[in-house]
C-alpha cells in the first residue's frame, strides 16, 4: 500500500461518523417497511412446510418441516389446471395489451387526423370509471355473446387497457419523427415502421406494460370469480379459495398453493427486474 | 442520377403560406445547398422534395417525372437527417442494410453494397457494432451509408452536420464533398451554416421567408449579393453595412443619403497613412480585437456603429485606441437604402 492510499483511507470518515440522524430515521422506516412486507411471505412459505397440526404454531421455522403439502397440491390435477389457466390468461392478455395498446398509442402519438384528441380523451375517460361499475355491463355482454364460463370471457375486458394505451402514447411521443421518416423513405409501409422501427425504440415502456399486465392478470380475482362457474376454468387465485370452501379452510394447502403461485411472478421479476425498476420510474414520470 | 425541378412550388399550413411559389432546377449531378435562417422554408422545401410534406401548389419533378402524389419510397431518393436517424437496436451493418429492406436484390448483392459502403465510408471495422459505440461523425457516416446503398437518383441532406463539433464538422464537410465527386449523384443539402454552403456547394440557394433570394455559385453570391440580407448572411464575419452617400464618385459613410455601403471585414484594412483618393476611410475607437493567427479582426466604433476591419496578424491595436481602416472603391458594395437591393459596385 502506498503512503497516498493509506492517507486516503485514514481521511475517510468512519461509518459511524456518516450516520446522520436523518439517515438513521430513513433506514429505520425502510427496515420496518421491509419487515412488514417480507413477514407475510415468510409465514406463507413457513406454513406451506407445516402439517395441519402445526399451522397455529406461529414459529417461523417449523418444528417438523414437511414437503407433503407440495406433493399433495401438485398431485391434485386441479392445481395444475388452474396454474395453466392462469398462465394462459395472463400471457394472452399481456400479449394482447402489448400489441393493441402500443398500436393505438403509436397511432395517437404519430398521426395527425381529425378526432384524434377526442378519441384519446374518450380512452382516457374510461380510466375514471371504477372496475366495480364495469362488471355488470361486462357480465351482461358476456351473457349475451355466450362468453360466460369461457377463457375469452375471462380475458376480454383486459385485452386492451386505457392505461396501457396512455402509457404507450406518451412513450411514442418521445420517439423522434426522423426515425419514422427515414424508414418511410427507405420504403417501409406504416405497419412495418411501427413494428420494426418504433417498437424496438420503446422497449422499456413495453417491458413495463408487459410486467404490470402480467402481474395484474396473474393475481386477478374479482372478474374471474364472477365470470367462471366450472372449476376447470378457474384461475389460480379462484382455485385456491376452493381449498377454503370445500375442505374447511386448509391453510397449509392454501399457503402451499400461494407459494407455488408466486413462482411465475418471481421468475418474471428475476428476469426483468431492471426493467421493472426502470418501468416503474418511467411510468411514474410519463404515466 | 436525376434533375430535380421545382416549379412554382407552394406550401401552406392552413391559411399561412410558408413557401411562396419558388422555381428552381437542381441539375443532374449538381450539389445544391439551400441556406437561410431558421424558418426560411429550406427544410420544408427539402421535405416536400422527399415526399414527407404534401405540396400545396406547383410541381416537383424528379428525373422529369412529376412526383407530387408519389410516396417517399417511390421517388428514388435517399435522405440523411440532422439527428442521423440510425436505429440504436441495430448494428451498423443492419442499419446500412436497412436502406435495402424493401428492395428485391438478392442477399449477395445486398451484402456487397453494404460492404462497399462500409469501405468507402471507413466503417468496415465498426460494421458489427451498435451505434451507441460510435462517435457522432461515425454515426453520421452510417446514416450516409444507409442512403448510399440504395443508389438513389438524388441525396437529400437535412442539416446533417449540425450535431457535430466544429472539428468533426469540418472533416465531414470534406468527406461529403469527396463522396459527391466519387458518386456524382445529385445532392440537395440544407444548412443554416453559410460556411458549409460556401465550402461544399456547386450552387447556393439563399432563402428567406419562403422566397429564394438568390441562386448561384458560392463566389458569385459572395462577390455579388443581390441584397443586404444575402450580403450579410454569406461570409463571416458579416459584411459591414453603413448608411451614406456618394460625393464626387467617392463613398461617404456619414449616415446621410439614400445608399447603404457594404464592406466585407476582409476588405476593410486597418492601416496608417493616406488613403487612395477614391477609397473609403473609417476612423473610430477600438472596442475589441480578435487575433485569429493569420490576421486580427478589429472591432471599432464609428459614430455609434460597430464596424469590423482586418489588421495584420502582429499588428494588434489596443482596445480604446483610435484606428483608421480603408476599403478600396472596387470592394464597396452599394445598396438602395429603402429596398436594400444591390446597386452593384463601382469597379
UniProtKB/TrEMBL annotation, chain A:
Protein name, per record: Carbohydrate ABC transporter membrane protein 2, CUT1 family
Assigned keywords, A-Z: Cell membrane, Membrane, Transmembrane, Transmembrane helix, Transport
Upper lineage: Bacteria, Pseudomonadati, Pseudomonadota, Alphaproteobacteria, Rhodobacterales
A cellular component term, taken from the record's GO annotations: plasma membrane
Chain ranges of the ABC transmembrane type-1 domain: 83-272
Compartments it resides in: Cell membrane
Main location: membrane
Entry's family note: Belongs to the binding-protein-dependent transport system permease family.
Bilayer topology: Multi-pass membrane protein
Origin: domain of life: Bacteria
Pfam families: BPD_transp_1
Gene Ontology BP annotations: transmembrane transport
InterPro entries hit by this protein: MetI-like (IPR000515), MetI-like_sf (IPR035906)
SUPFAM superfamilies the UniProt entry points to: MetI-like
Annotated organism of origin: Limimaricola pyoseonensis
The UniProt record lists the keyword Ligase: no
Membrane-crossing segments per the record: 24-45, 82-106, 118-139, 151-172, 193-215, 257-277
UniProtKB/TrEMBL annotation, chain B:
GO MF, one annotated term: ATP hydrolysis activity
Keyword terms, alphabetized: ATP-binding, Nucleotide-binding, Transport
Gene3D superfamilies, per the entry: 2.40.50.100, Nucleic acid-binding proteins (2.40.50.140), P-loop containing nucleotide triphosphate hydrolases (3.40.50.300)
SUPFAM superfamilies per record: MOP-like, P-loop containing nucleoside triphosphate hydrolases
Matching Pfam families: ABC_tran (PF00005), TOBE_2 (PF08402)
Annotated GO biological process: carbohydrate transport
Residue span(s) of domain ABC transporter: 4-234
UniProt KW ATP-binding keyword: yes
PROSITE patterns from the UniProt entry: ABC_TRANSPORTER_1, ABC_TRANSPORTER_2
GO CC aspect terms: ATP-binding cassette (ABC) transporter complex, substrate-binding subunit-containing
Key word ATP-binding present: yes
Protein name, UniProt field: Carbohydrate ABC transporter ATP-binding protein, CUT1 family
Organism from which the protein derives: Limimaricola pyoseonensis
